[in-house]
Amino acid sequence: MNVLWKALSTAALGLTVVPSILVFTGAISWSMHATLMMVGTVAWFATAPLWMEGTRAQRKHSDTHETDF
Amino acid sequence: MAPKHRSSLAERLDAINEFDREPVSENRVQGPGNFIGLYAGEHVAGTEFVIGPLFVAHGVAAGDLLLGLLVGNLVAVLSWAFLCAPIATKTRLNLYWHLRRIAGPNLLFVYNIVNALMFCFLAGSMISVAATAVGIPFDMPMPGLDDLYPSSVAWVVTVLLVGGVVTLLAILGFERIAQFSKIASPWLFLVFLASGVAVLPQLGVESIGDFWSVANESIWTGEPVEGRVRFTFWHVTFFAWFANMAMHIGMADMTILRFARKWQYGFASAFGMYLGHYVAWVASGILVALALQQGGEVAPGPISYLGAGVAGLIAVLLAGWTTANPTIYRAGLAMQTVTPNWKRWKVTLAVGVITTVAALFPALMMRLLDFVALYGLILMPMGAVIFADFWILPKLGLRRHYAERKRLVYSVPAATAWIVTLGVCWLLNVMLGWQIFFLGLPGWFIATGLYVSLSVMQQRSEEPELTPAPNLESS
Predict the structure, then answer these.
(1) Under an 8 A CB cutoff, do A68 and B175 touch?
(2) Among residues B320, B360, B409, B426, which one has the least CA distance to residue B103?
(3) Which of B4, B199, B244, B402 has its CA 20 to 30 A from that of B369?
(4) Which of B29, B30, B201 sits opposite A24 (nearest CB)?
(5) Helix B153-203 and helix B105-134, axial crossing angle in degrees, nearest 10
(6) A20 contact B CB<8A
(7) A51 touches chain B (CB under 8 A)
(8) Is residue A46 part of a domain?
(9) Are the CB atoms for B193 and B279 separated by under 8 Å?
(10) CB contact under 8 A, A66 and B30
């Protein structure tokens, strides 16, 4: 399942940054870029915690070196 | 951490024990990934939306900016790696408890008050930044570049709300916010990058080949706005180097790097410097150049909206909030030695109140370059004292941690080094006109020289029979 979340998170980061390049090349408008970036933002915060926190929880159980600062 | 069966808020708060006063044990040290994430996250912060624009306001030229940031950030990374990290990983103590051994409890008391106030002001500027994003949907009048005092009732209300929420969340769950900050940081960096790229066509950049000429003619023009000193390559270099002087040369990041398995993890700071203090500063400079060209507002919220729309506002809000949080945490650590009987939540609340009041003053945000330089300068001499105590005194056959050995409540060499260094720096500023950005370097040598020479006088007069000091960790 983590693979799926990671793939979606990567796509979300892509939606955050790629539209700006398309604005630069003239392929899309600025408002489209802002909309896509917002979609990417929502998608990132919806998917990234699912695997980033999962990874952290697994480490907590397996790695005695884990701590917080 | 609080055991899970505890349910009441008071019990959970009271149970907080982060072993701040003990050396980090070997089984709690961490690998390099944590430090890369931490530095990358911490230095892609809300204040980057201010510093990049202030370089534009100071009329730096494009070549000076890009080269100065390259060199200055490199020296900053080297300072973390070669000055702070080795001492942090050998002592495994945070700054405050290590300094207590050197400076004595009374001097540490004074230092911690100063340190905590500096952290409060820094966190305050981050809350100001976040408030500029919150205020946009409500048409809040934004503070201008020259505003020093609260400029409207709406500004005051917004800052109080943001500061209150940030403080409450810091009290309730520092670790959850720290984790959220890690999740936000890759996205945040890309928002900076994308914002800068997306507005380039509006500045006249039609292809990559146009960038350099537009950069020189429309962004970093070499012409300061009225009332600002013109920045050169040297200003940029020294500012980039000393922007976090309190953290590396001043040794505040011993608190973080004491968890590093190896001292080389100090190089992880490069991820923060070159992502946050290079790319993000450049990107936010591009945004403010467009804002100035359009005659719009130059506060972080409005310029981020220019680049990324609503996502930009969210970025400013989260960047301000998530970076104010660890700064409040650090201030809490500093205050803890001053108020050892207070629970963490009380300390955090006190720090949050001071921070929020400071955030009301836009001067903190709009004069951030000067404040950051002053903040590093004030705390730097104690970093020099720690450096000299650790590396130089043993080579001269002198004892480390002399205040602790002799049960002194304050160390005369450390106190003198601190006060005289700041006094000399002040004189250099006032009488010779040396700008604050350049005072840290001579100041470090003055502080080191004073501490060493006064320690020689102190220890040789009191213990003429001294033999070479044993290794610190066995003493």
Answers:
(1) yes
(2) B409
(3) B199
(4) B201
(5) 70
(6) yes
(7) no
(8) yes
(9) yes
(10) yes
Query: Hey, is the C-beta of B279 within 8 angstroms of any chain A C-beta?
Result: no
Residue B397 token pair: 């056959």
- Is-contact B165 B25, C-beta < 8 A? no
State the pLDDT at residue B148: 86
Predicted structure pTM score? 0.87
CB contact (8 A) between residue A23 and residue B187:
no
Domain housing A13? 2-52
Phi-psi region of B260 (alpha: psi -120 to 50; beta: other; left: phi over 0): beta
What kind and span of H or E run contains B412? Answer: helix B412-431
- Burial code (b: 16+ CB inside 10 Å, e: under 16) for B446-455 equals bbbebbbebb
State how far the Cα of B72 lies from the Cα of B57, in Å rounded to an integer. Answer: 19
Chain position carrying tokens 């000299």: B388
| Residue A52 at interface with chain B, using a CB cutoff of 8 Å | yes
Is A66 inside any structural domain?
no
Are B73 and B267 in contact by the 8 Å Cβ rule? The answer is no
Query: Has residue A48 been placed in a domain?
Result: yes
Q: How far is CA B66 from the centre of its chain?
A: 21
Rounding to the nearest 10 degrees, give the CA dihedral for residues B217, B223, B228, B230. 110
Does A57 map to a domain?
Answer: no
List B residues 115-134 in contact with A (Cβ-Cβ < 8 A). none
DSSP state of B143: P
Q: What is the pLDDT along chain B (475 residues), one digit of tens a residue?
A: 334 444 443 344 344 334 566 788 888 888 888 898 888 878 888 889 889 999 999 999 999 999 999 999 999 999 999 999 999 999 998 887 899 899 998 898 898 889 888 889 988 998 999 998 888 888 888 888 788 889 889 999 999 999 999 888 888 766 777 778 788 889 999 999 999 999 999 999 989 999 999 999 999 999 998 888 899 999 999 999 999 999 999 998 998 899 999 999 999 999 999 999 999 999 999 999 999 999 888 889 999 999 999 999 999 998 888 778 877 877 877 777 667 677 778 888 999 999 999 999 998 888 888 999 999 999 999 999 999 999 999 999 999 999 999 999 999 999 999 999 999 999 999 999 999 999 999 999 999 999 999 999 999 887 655 454 444 443 3
The yes-or-no verdict on residue A64 having pLDDT over 60 is no
How many domains does one find in chain A?
A: 1
- The count of other CB atoms within 10 Å of the CB of residue B148 is 12
- Give yes or no for A65 touching B (CB within 8 A): yes
User: What phi, psi does B61 have (nearest 5°)?
Assistant: -85, 155
List phi, psi (to 5°) of B132.
-70, -25
DSSP state, residue B392 = I
CATH architecture of B26-377: Orthogonal Bundle (1.10)
> What's the complex ipTM?
0.84
